[in-house]
Specification:
73% helix, single chain, mainly alpha
């Protein structure tokens, strides 16, 4: 117990120290929100990865989808790496950095407002981001409850308050640069921690091959009727339910392309070299962390016990991973706690910074307090960081039903609304203002309507449908609605035509 507590104290001390060290880099709005657009590849890549993967993935999703799909759930982690990280950087990274600098946009709603010359889109975008980001902040605490119950004789509520307080301190003190530096440290913990845990858990089952053999003997229950009762599916390539597995891959991978707190990382990256290096680092990080989480969760059926069931006999998915870890040595349990805290605090800091900056710059400053000066904006953002953390704590301690529903659809609603107009807006001059409105309506409409009507059984699949629908709706609506002023759009896209000089080590000439 003493060793585990010492690890936590050292971890928290480092986080706070980084926050105060970064104060000098948070003296104006641009620095507080974007780190002065001078953040290097390692910090940006780790900030992207640690914001992507929280305790929701390590405990909730890994447990739930590992139980449902077995080892084939590893495809989710690989999808996160190659679609959610590699392709996101290749498709969005460079163009996001160039165009947002041209537009002087610091948030996603501000991008929509300036790219499509619409104050209403900017305000509506900030409302959508606020509504679906704030409840999402509460969800990241969920994975901690059972782990802390397993490892410490400490009330889960105390853990939530301490974690939120310490996160708030370093974000308020150092802004984006503090979160980026801490994300790098937390990312190192996550990389080594997940590898150590996988090795320890498999060794406890007699090794990798023995664990695979045990898993192959388990019949696939409660899956599609054609496959029900078949043995070996949990150890197979595509698992017992490939179609629903695909829906999870789409939502958790393509979703990052439209999440404000994820795309925001591209706004702040330093230069071309940082984009290229960051792409490689981010992909590697996702392969290890996300692939490792889902691979570990795939062995969940080997730890079937009464501890993972609720009183009514249903599976408590959040209990599966803690049950897998309960037999580990104390040192490894301490590492797991720090690992999950790292994942949770990095995601929390990213969410509250995005929420506070969006509400301040795109709602209060833009529509209600237009005369707010730079100093006041900084003060308001810092106050809102604290306010959002308080709200997330309240929701996590006493989660009402509708909040739990909102947390489940937040990725689908945000990415369904934002992904298509953001991505197309970086590449095409033909995207119209009305098509962006249509994407907002379709993205939010599908996911929210599904909560009440349930025309799609899985909210995961509903979120995936919302994203795909947006990608279809925007180009179709753009074909039949009035075009934007050509001169205005040409001026925006002129940022891609500027000439830069580089060494041949970075670009070959045509001769």
């Amino acid at each position: 117990m003493v060793g585990k507590l010492c690890m936590l104290i050292i971890f928290f001390a480092v986080m706070i120290g980084v926050g105060f060290y970064s104060r000098k880099n948070a003296t104006n709005v641009n620095d507080f929100v974007l780190g002065g657009r001078g953040v290097g590849p390692w910090l940006t890549a780790f900030a992207f990865g640690t914001s992507y993967f929280s305790s929701v993935v390590f405990v909730g999703y890994a447990g739930q989808f590992g139980w449902r799909y077995g080892l084939s759930s590893t495809w989710i982690g690989l999808g996160n790496a190659f679609i959610g990280s590699l392709l996101a950087w290749l498709v969005l990274g460079r163009r996001t950095r160039v165009m947002t600098q041209k537009l002087e946009a610091r948030t996603m709603p501000e991008f929509f407002g300036k790219r499509y010359d619409s104050a209403s889109l900017r305000v509506l975008g900030s409302v959508i981001a606020f509504v679906f980001l704030v409840p999402y902040t509460a969800s990241i605490y969920n994975g901690l409850s059972r782990l802390f119950g397993m490892a410490f004789n400490i009330d889960y509520k105390v853990c939530i308050v301490v974690m939120a307080l310490l996160t708030g301190v370093y974000v308020i003190a150092g802004g984006y640069m503090a979160t980026a530096l801490n994300d790098f440290i937390q990312g190192i913990v996550m990389l080594f921690g997940i590898c150590a845990v996988i090795v320890a858990v498999l060794n406890g089952q007699g090794g990798f091959l023995a664990a695979i053999k045990k898993l192959s003997l388990i019949p696939a229950e409660n899956v599609v009727p054609a496959l029900q009762g078949s043995q070996g599916l949990f150890a197979s390539f595509f698992g017992p339910d490939p179609l629903n597995l695909l829906g999870v891959i789409v939502l958790t991978s393509l979703g990052t392309w439209g999440l404000p707190q994820m795309v925001h990382k591209f706004y702040a990256i330093k230069d071309e070299k940082a984009v290229k290096t960051g792409t490689i680092i981010s992909t590697f990080f996702a392969i290890v962390v996300s692939g490792g989480c889902y691979f570990l969760g795939g062995f969940g059926h080997l730890f079937d016990s009464p501890a993972i069931y609720t009183p009514d006999g249903s599976i408590a998915y959040d209990s599966i991973v803690p049950q897998m870890l309960s037999t580990l040595p104390d040192l490894l349990i301490g590492i797991v706690i720090v690992l999950v805290l790292s994942a949770s605090m990095s995601t929390l800091s990213s969410l509250v910074l995005t929420s506070s900056s969006t509400l301040t710059l795109d709602f209060l400053k833009f529509s209600l307090a237009k005369d707010m000066n730079e100093k006041t904006q900084l003060i308001v953002m810092r106050i809102l960081v604290g306010a959002f953390i308080v709200v997330s704590v309240v929701l996590a301690l006493n989660p009402p039903t509708f909040i739990a529903q909102l947390m489940g659809i937040s990725w689908g609603a945000l990415a369904g609304a934002f992904l298509a107009p953001f991505m197309y807006g970086l590449y095409s001059k033909r995207v119209t203002r009305i098509s962006v409105w249509a994407s907002f309506v379709v993205g939010v409409g599908i996911t929210v309507a599904n909560v009440f009507i349930k025309f799609i059984a899985s909210p995961i699949n509903a979120g995936a449908l919302a994203m795909i629908a947006g990608l279809v709706v925007v180009p179709i609506v753009s074909l039949v609605t009035p075009k934007m002023d050509q001169k205005y759009v040409d001026d925006i896209f002129s940022c891609y035509d500027e000439t830069v000089t580089v060494h041949k080590s970075h670009s070959l000439d045509e001769s």
